[in-house]
Amino acid sequence: MKGNAAKTWSLNGITITLACLTASCGGGPPDPESFSRPAALYLGQQPPGETPEPFAPGIVNTDAIELNGVVSPDGREFFFTRVIDGVFVMHRSLKGEAGSWSAPEPVYTYPDRAPGLAVDMAYSPDGSRLYFLGRYSEELGAEETNSDLFVIERQGDDSWSPASPLAAPVNRPDSQEWYPSVAADGSLYFASDRPGGLGEGDIWRAQRLADGSFGEPVNLGPPVNSEYHEGDTYVSPDESWLVVTSRRPGGIGGGDLYVSFRRDDGAWSEPRLLPPTINTELLDFCPMGTPDGRYLFFSRRTGDSWAEADAGDVFWVNTSVIEKVRS
């Protein structure tokens, strides 16, 4: 889309209209000059081509298990997750005025720096909020509660508020919610095993309302969702395509990345498996696009479960591979 172009479609009976400004829908981030120098933007790393590369070896990827790769809309902040003593801890690197990046440091999101799960981050379009998967309860302890979606609010340039869970109808007491992704209009895509789904996990969309709250989540339905497990999903800002992690038949490993494109009638196309350079016999998951639309971050992990995992890394690849799948 160009300029102020708008597009309307219907999702399971709900009419959605997206007015898209070029700067917020994959056409260009707030600082075009910065994004014209991608090596300086992404922790000084040389950008990849259509073959995935480990991201920032020795800085982000270490001997520990790492996952996620999330860049702020202004390009000054990079979040990822590192597993420390079995705990999933957010880490952050900041770009200084001189252009150098700080060493990654843990970010503790819960009140009084309490321990708890914090993983799978996604920015709001303006960078003022960071959504993530959390598991924390002051009364019960992190391991005794469902996973929910949390949010932290930016306070000043580099600090964040304590985390708070999203209200109903996004979070439910009888289900797990995980892996948020935010469209240009602020609407939230996420995975959940809530009632009404098609399989073990489905992708849902909650419209961002005028008062800042979210409407009742709507199941994307088939063919994105299936009787199998769909989970981690990244949706492009203009909602024209999404990358979903699925365990449906026909994949390569324990979980694979598929891309689905939105057709002119608003329906999603049959998900197509991304190339074998991206999908392997391991678990390939956690897709997240960059603000300039050029790159896709994803994660790769050993083992059939987290209890069995002994390695995990963050990768990135040029999004031109997605366009090749489209054609």
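The record above closes out task 2.4. Task 2.5 opens with a second protein, given below.
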Amino acid sequence: MTEPSSTATRPHIPTGVWVLGFVSMFMDISSEMVHSLLPLFMVSVLGASALAVGLIEGVAEATVLVAKTFSGVLADVLGKRKGLALAGYGLGALTKPLFAVAPDLSVVVTARLLDRIGKGVRGAPRDALVADITPAAMRGAAFGLRQSLDTVGAFVGPLLAVGLMLWWHDDFRAVFWVAVVPGLLAVGLLAAGVHEPDRAAAARRTNPIRRTNLARLSRPYWWVVAVGTVFTFARFSEAFLVLRARQTGVPVAFVPLVMVVMSLVYSLTAYPFGRLSDRMPHRTLLALGLAVLICADAVLATNGHWATVLVGVALWGLHMGMTQGLFARMVADTVPPDLRGTGYGLFSLVSGGAMLAASALAGLLWDRFGAPATFGAGAVFCALAMAGLVRPPTAVATPE
């Protein structure tokens, strides 16, 4: 893993990173208008259990991460990024109407999986594109900025959902129809506003899953994969934050505010911590992020009061801001440029299996022992991840 180095003159973040950030923002507005209400819709309207919610969310998020594997490999084979990203955003936009017309849980599951396939298809090529167009010395800032703009959508979406639920008297389906609009805006902005750089288009095409190419993925890269996997066990689906908020007894229309709080903190902290990752050891920042997540789990496990839950959710968002962009930067730093798509894809594949298992375990613990057991288990996995940070492999510089 390459530790950050200082630079006297910091270049500006490329325009393409800003555009990709706004594309992510519009798509996240669309997605979070649906996702902030979906657990409640499944439980209160369609009669699903907490275990079913956990399994559906786990499978959905695992689908994202598995799809990233194939799209990442394909991006390296083609030497192109934008086309795959556009296909993924387009699929995400086109699946939104299915939530509005879903008569039963099977249609919701289908729509959720198709939506997550779209997210998976666009994820690895988009991240590889950010890495391609950004100078190495400021990748942390670039990934932090994109993540910050993405997360603006993650709190604007639930805010719109709350307002529309109040206006339309808890009409879930009407809100889901409105979510179609920002999704289409994201697709249009990506098509018109992002131009693939010559460097990425001319990159050496190769079969990334050949043994000789896989051997080029270094020990530091696999260490990043291992730590990220344990992180995923510690950070199961945010659907359980929504369910925890519902236990406080607040009106259904206000429950999505927990996602607003988490996403607001996430958005405000992702870019500053991204810049910080360009200046400080990554292991230190990861350890601090784990410490914050342990605090969040402890708060959410020990007290179910509305105000206390908001504190735990805010800490959860702070942890996300400290670590999620950092992992994207660490992957970029530890793989060769022509294998970036594959590097992101494999990272996501392994994390996807962990997300499925973590969300299923969280739902099972919730149904049998209650919310404290779910968040307590998350804290235990945080401690395991911290143990993995004690002795990372020697950093290996990746040639540009």
